[in-house]
Amino acid sequence: MFDRTRVAVIRQLKGMGCARFEIGVRHPERGMLLRGWVPDEIMRGIDWLKRENAQGCDIYIRPARDCEHGLVLVDDIGRGTIQSLPYAGHEPAVVVETSPENHQVWINLGNSQSDGVRSAAARILAKKYGADLNSADHAHFGRLAGFSNRKPEHRTIQGSPWVLLRNYPGVVCSQADALVSEAQQFLQKHHTDCNVATMLRQCVPVLERSNVRDWYTGVWLSLEERFGTQLDASRADWMIAGMLFERGHDFATVADAVRQHSPRMSIRKSANIEDYLLRTVGKAQIWIELKAQGARWEDVKDKLLWLAQERTQKTSNELDLT
Q1: What does the pLDDT look like over 287-311, one tens digit per residue?
Q2: Whole-angstrom distance, CA of residue 125 vs CA of residue 81
């Protein structure tokens, strides 16, 4: 007897191409139950998974965390986006329609990659294609095709929609090497940023309100000595400015410190220093204020420049009236 679920599962496992998987059975009240299975064990467990699904559980899959692989999940994208992936060299290994017009794709980077590289690649792809950033990490579950999506928001009078396998070529994406390189650069930058932030926190106790300029210069000398050419000067200005705002300094003080004491400013930003100060110091001021109000970076990052420009214009108008 033809079993659509078995066929879908066999094909998805083939497209993902891992030696071992983790199957997640999410109960609406009890949470996630995990099973670490090789493909044959998954096939033997199909009937049990069907029963759990019929009782309201969602069925998920991911490569086993102790398994070497190069798969990256991109979640919540549309059909048009999927069609554009090959043009950028990001051909999917597996395409799953999780609910009508909502899709997940698994992209294969080829050789086994570290958790960090896969997480970074997932974030790069999510940002590029407008996918769900909350799903962009190395260990996120995707849906297993052949079972129904039991989320209440997807239920209709016809019942819960089926999770459908739309494609499973199992290919390594043609831009895998470039994507891995970009992910490694992302990790290096993040590592440097974290170390810069650590050094800045260590400098906080010696920061005096009356001695911002000397503190700024001292911090820069320490950062350059520690990170050398790896230090992103603009990023460092942004982080130092943010810390100064957290310590209660006003825009004029912080902007003057960056203008006067950020190394090689006249060379780095000779075209328009004032525009740089707005983009760096102005945005940092807005972000620190919004963060104090509980805002999330992902929700406000694209608005910071506009808000900084608006504040600058308002301040200018007020000065013109006095």
Answers
A1: 888 888 888 877 777 788 888 888 8
A2: 11
Distance CA 216, CA 244 (A): 9
DSSP 96-133: EEEETTEEEEEEE-SS---HHHHHHHHHHHHHHHT--G
Give the mean model confidence (pLDDT) for residues 77-82: 93
Whether residue 238 contacts residue 301, with contact meaning beta carbons closer than 8 Å, is answered with no
| Whether the predicted pLDDT of 142 surpasses 90 | yes
45: region left, alpha or beta (phi > 0 left; psi from -120 to 50 alpha)? alpha
Query: Which residue shows structure tokens 């009782």?
Result: 55
| Bridge partners of residue 156, in order along the sequence | 159
71: closest CA among 21, 23, 26, 36? 21
Tell me how far CA of residue 112 lies from CA of 44, 172, 176, in angstroms: 27, 12, 11
pTM passes above 0.90: no
Residue type, 198: T
